[in-house]
Amino acid sequence: MAEKPVWHPERLAARLPFLDARARLTTATRAFFTARGYREVETPCLVPVPGMEVHLMGFSTRYRPHLGRGRERTLWLRTSPELAIKRLLAGGAGPVFELARVWRNGEVSPRHHPEFTMLEWYRPGADLAGLMDETEAFVRLVCPDRVGHAGVETDLTLPFARLTMAEAFARHAAVPDLLATVSAEGRGDAAALSTAARIDLRDGEDWEDLFFRLLLERVEPVIGRERACFLTHWPAPQAALARRDPDDPRAALRFELFVAGIELANAFDELTDAAEQRARFAADVAERQRRYGEGWPADEDFLAALDHGLPETAGIAMGFDRLAMLASGARGIDDVLWLPLSGLADDDEAHA
């Protein structure tokens, strides 16, 4: 029998200072991008393909026509607005941003909620270095000089560090040359990475699994603490929708931003080659099926837009709720949500 819902108005009252800070953050965000010539857009939440990231789980629903038009089909709540926004870029929308409601199944923690807000912005003609400059300016503008989370404090008045993934693995994960474990074709060698890290492979562990184990256990706990850190030039097997580095195709033009120990944003110098993106999507579809036994096809609408032509662009996705946590001093993501879902984790308490 389901438990009877409990209403706790005092919990909402306790969150109001954080929610007011979130509202001010929203206003400041719109002002920042409008002043820089960005156009605010709204893309669909209900889509035929939720996203192409292998490890993200989606929420599906069934569309059933009842007015004599259309056909029955499965639709999804988006995991990101990225593919839709890039279709707008291919149509000439210019610099754009969106405060997008997105959904990811199964993600619950003090930093995760299955329904959350993603701030994404894209500037045609920008490169990764310029996007880092703009991101640093934005975070400094909307946050206090010092921010913290879970006992980790970051001084945002200090210049943000820029650390390549290879440098981070050499410095913190005892891997002298991470890119030596990646082929020129962009494939990772698990045995080579295991040898370099002096760590045994677990049963069934491939290069990607070991890479993330080292990243999560050795690198992420020590970066983005005293000062914010851009972790750049990811290995090519983790390129996702980023271009590979023309100076070294074993690396991709991608960065993540870490502040107060939190992964805050993920950014690409966007891949514009339709043939390469189509091949990557085919590999992603196969990998999702191999790992999880389920999935969805590639986003053909997005690929058609790439065929038409996507301008050279740099783009970024930032967790807006996490940014609100830092800007307001909230302890966790629930503090900056008006009505967080309850009962999602075993140790949940009922929410207002």
Name the structural class.
alpha+beta
Question: Whole-number average pLDDT?
Answer: 94
Terminus-to-terminus distance: 21 Å
Secondary-structure element order, as H and E? HEEEEHEEHEEEHHHEEEEHHEH
Spatial extent as radius of gyration: 21 Å
Number of helices: 9
Tell me the number of strands: 14
Would you write up a description of this structure?
This protein is α+β, with helices and mostly antiparallel strands and 352 residues long. Helix content is 33%, strand content 23%. The protein has helices at 9-35, 82-90, 128-142, 165-172, 190-197, 207-219, 274-292, 300-308, 320-328; strands at 39-40, 46-47, 59-63, 73-77, 96-103, 115-124, 146-149, 152-155, 161-164, 229-235, 244-245, 248-259, 262-269, 313-319. The strands form 3 sheets. Strands 1, 5, 6, 9, 10, 11, 12, 13 and 14 form a 9-stranded mixed sheet that branches. The model has no long low-confidence stretch (mean pLDDT 94).
Q: How are the elements arranged and paired?
A:
Layout: H1 9-35, E1 39-40, E2 46-47, E3 59-63, E4 73-77, H2 82-90, E5 96-103, E6 115-124, H3 128-142, E7 146-149, E8 152-155, E9 161-164, H4 165-172, H5 190-197, H6 207-219, E10 229-235, E11 244-245, E12 248-259, E13 262-269, H7 274-292, H8 300-308, E14 313-319, H9 320-328
Parallel strand pairs: 1-5, 9-10
Antiparallel strand pairs: 2-4, 3-4, 5-6, 6-14, 7-8, 10-12, 11-12, 12-13, 13-14
Helix pairs in contact: 1-9, 2-8, 5-6, 7-8
